[in-house]
Amino acid sequence: MAEILRTPDGGVNLARWRAAAPGVAARLAGWFDGARRDLPWRRHRTPWRTWVSEVMLQQTQVAKVVPYFERFCAAWPDVADLAAAPLEPVLKAWEGLGYYARARNLHRAARVVAERHGGRVPDDLDALLALPGLGPYTARAVLSLGFDRPVAVVDGNVGRVLARLAAVDRPLRPGADPEIFRLAEVLLDRAAPRRHNEALMELGALVCRPGRPACGACPLSPVCLARRRGRAADLP
Length: 236
Hints:
Layout: H1 14-35, H2 40-43, H3 47-56, H4 62-75, H5 79-84, H6 87-94, H7 101-116, H8 125-129, H9 136-147, H10 156-165, H11 178-187, H12 193-206, H13 225-228
């Protein structure tokens, strides 16, 4: 059954995956409800807290980010608070987290939001992309995770999960691989996009790991082409 999820020329059969999408979403949701980590940005979701967490998590491990995130959001609980702050204490709060351009861009972007959007994080993709330091992934994460909008979000973890799921046997393109991104859009649970995207990210972080996937614990193993072919550890 799983092999029909590829086209005759070896591409991803999006029509077949679209038919399988409700089952994939249900499996993911059931697993995530019991396996999700208790992370501070998940306890109280807002667009601003989502934005801060996604910026901090760039090239930084979750365990290191947690205390910085909690202190940062205690000091500047909303985008307007950061916009009103001078840069120096912001950089001081970032000290030890590294990649200080992230803090500078976040501060600049907060001031743009205050000036152009009335101090409210915009809920429009183009408006988010116009802010300093926000690339396509972060903008989509803010929309989906912060606003619960039906937008596909593909980070490294999600890309790996989907590549294995569809047995994409080639190096993935940097950023959003077009074929993987189309698959993410097809599989997206539009009734619960935040939970769906968080679940895919969590699955990649905890189960579908690079080089050593725990296929026996994976809720998607029944439809995973890489597992069926014995190639999960090799892909992508």
